[in-house]
Amino acid sequence: MTPNPISVTFDIGEGRMVTIETGKLARQADGAVTVRLGDCVILATVVANKEPKEGQSFFPLTVDYQEKFASAGRIPGSFFKREARLNDYEILTSRLIDRALRPLFPEDYLCDVQVLVSLISSDPEVMPDAMACLAASAALAVSDIPVQEIISEVRIAKVNGEMVVNPSRTQLAEADMDFMIAATDRNIMMVEGEGKECQEEDLVKAIELAHNVIKIQVKAQEELRDKVGVKGKREYTKPYRNEELYAKITTFAKDKMLAIASKASAKNERQEAFENLLKETTEFLGEEIPDEDKSLIKFYFGELQYNVVRDMILATNKRLDGRGLEDIRPLTMEVDYLPSPHGSALFTRGETQSLTTVTLGTPLDELLVESAASSDYSKFILHYNFPPFSTGEVKMMRGVGRREVGHGNLAQRSLKQILPGSDYPYTVRVVSDILESNGSSSMATVCAGSLALMDAGVPFKKHVSGVAMGLISKEGKFAILTDILGDEDHLGDMDFKVTGTKEGICGVQMDIKVDGLSMDIMRKALDQAKRGRLFILDAMYQCIPEHRSDVKPHAPRMEKLIIDSEFIGAVIGPGGKIIQEIQKTTGATINITEVGKTGEVSIFSANKESLDQAVAWVKSIVSVPEIGDVYEGTVKGIKEFGAFVEFLPGKQGLLHISEIMWKRLDSMDNVFHEGDKVKVKLIGVDPKTGKFKLSRKALIPKPESNPATKPSGNN
User: Fold this and answer.
1) Quick count: other Cβ atoms within 10 Å of Cβ 265?
2) I want to staple 656 with a disulfide (CB 3.0 to 4.6 A). Which of 167, 359, 399, 642 is the partner?
3) What is the mean pLDDT of residues 358-363?
4) Positive or negative: CA dihedral 524, 528, 531, 536
5) Per-residue confidence at 79, pLDDT binned at 50, 70, 90?
6) Residue in 649, 632, 652, 675 with CA at minimum distance from that of residue 579
7) How many angstroms separate the CA atoms of 400 and 545, rounded?
8) What is the fold, at CATH topology level, of the domain defined by 243-316?
């Protein structure tokens, strides 16, 4: 069949034209499009099974974003020279797409859906992640897969005080705000990003600007869908339901469920009570109910629990653990908890606990962050671990999951806003191990990470805290919840995490599960989140008010020297001879990086004596000798007219026989031996040869003349 491409084109501002095309590539997929901006081309495909798997009880959506290295004319650096498992950047982009698409599908749609998005042509100035969700949504729009709405996603950055839509890579490097926003033409669906202590109103303005741009992109997808001729969505098999059974369960369990929810009990006690009530409900229904209804008991019990708890909170402004809407659970925190790490903190908020460590390393420990378009090194690394025991569960340990990558990224991008700049020579690794979890362990990671960085002596100027917000809304009423529990996250309409300092926002991650979230509710949620953030910050400052003045005694010592680039070769030496000798003799580790016309020499050592010795050695190599300075030199060679003395590494001068002492010497016999140490003064430089002239006698007091030998003065 001859390809019949169909396309639409629209302007995203400043003459940047985006083209969405379908009908040419991947025509056996249920939906396939390419999205192009400049030289950046993204291919998105979507395929859905016609029927759900037998017994399927959840919506199995899979989203994978991958960058083909050929798109940038590069060969992967792996041993196999092919694209392997998704890297963290690709996982994070996949999550951005997934979180925006998932609410679009009907709740009773349980067929497997696979969305694959690939970067097939790269533009060095176009950020592909800002267009990946547009491509995925467009592929769904031109298919018959039963999505309820069309969405898109854009990046908003603040560059030099101006809001920019989908900034270039160069612009983004200078931005002090970077937010990704997904929305339909009516509602905001997802927000994620970071800011250098931006204000709440700045975030609201960014969301409003993004929504206006997204409406244009949704309209373009609708135009493409109409051109393709998509008339409707496919019919699908809906799961079996029995409303009569739901009514029986409600009659028996509703009041008992409300009593459990109102008891203000701890997580484990509450879970056990709900489990026992489920058993009672099952026994009440009896064994005679049909097999197909037995599988529905747990489903309807969950539906009832969802409605009972939400109604209780809206009616009483009291929550499952008895708190008010804005109350934060009890906080305990401790720094210097572990003796061996370079910094550590234990942060507990209610039933959520993070044990976080900080390790200081050398530039050799920097992390290579590679994508199709770039390879960069990061000096700040944050890893988040969520073991199954933290929720009292037994699960296979199969490596880091996407959730852990996403939560770790939110904490990392929040803390990095306050980290020292590139002049700070240490590579910093933060590891958060979640030991208990009942609500927002990522926000506990932010708080524990801030405390641990202060404890490690990193020049971390301000504390950063975080709080997770929730929303419950029904029939015009709503309740905004501060510091949500795990159950409240599951039952609520919004999961809204905000991090920041006392001065402003550093990070945001928001997922909205309900239509019609107004900007007024958004502003109220941000204002309430600020109050919660400040409350936690006050407690953190009481724990450790500022970073330690120095690193721990067992942490590596460090000093950075900036030298002229012409001296880099002198420090390294032929074949690395000099730098290897310094490292072998002192035990220090030296890393040299050329930056423009200067060299950055980072020197690390396990103890101060070793560090000082290495620093002095490097300084002596790069120092420029000045006439009048005094040096401790080493005799390198002896001639009949004097001695050659190395007074600085690689720098020798002539100590002439006449400059050794005030007494006249007839020869150099037995005056010096090679290797002797001698203190000398630089007295001049030969203008023709540039050779250094040294003197020893200039450092020796001139002896007084003997009066008996003086001439009489009479002729």
Assistant:
1) 16
2) 642
3) 91
4) negative
5) confident
6) 649
7) 34
8) Arc Repressor Mutant, subunit A (1.10.10)
CATH architecture of 331-543: 2-Layer Sandwich (3.30)
Q: Residue 11, annotated ligand binder?
A: no
Residue 710 pLDDT more than 60? no
> What are 637's two structure tokens?
């060679």
What is the largest distance, in Å, between two alpha-carbon atoms of the chain? 147
Judge whether residue 597 has pLDDT over 90.
Answer: no
Is 495 annotated as contributing to ligand binding? yes
What CATH architecture is 629-699? Beta Barrel (2.40)
Domain ranges of the chain: 6-228, 243-316, 331-543, 557-622, 629-699
Output the pTM of the full model.
0.85
- With contact defined as beta carbons under 8 Å apart, do 486 and 267 qualify? yes
Contacts of 578 (CB under 8 A, 6+ apart): 570, 571, 572, 621, 649, 650
pLDDT of residue 516: 64
* pLDDT tens digits, one per residue of 249-285: 999 999 999 999 999 888 889 999 999 999 999 999 9
Please, what sign has the CA dihedral across residues 22, 25, 29, 34?
A: negative
- Name which CATH class applies to 6-228: alpha beta
557-622 maps to which CATH number?
3.30.1370.10
- Tell me if 6-228 shares its fold with 331-543: yes
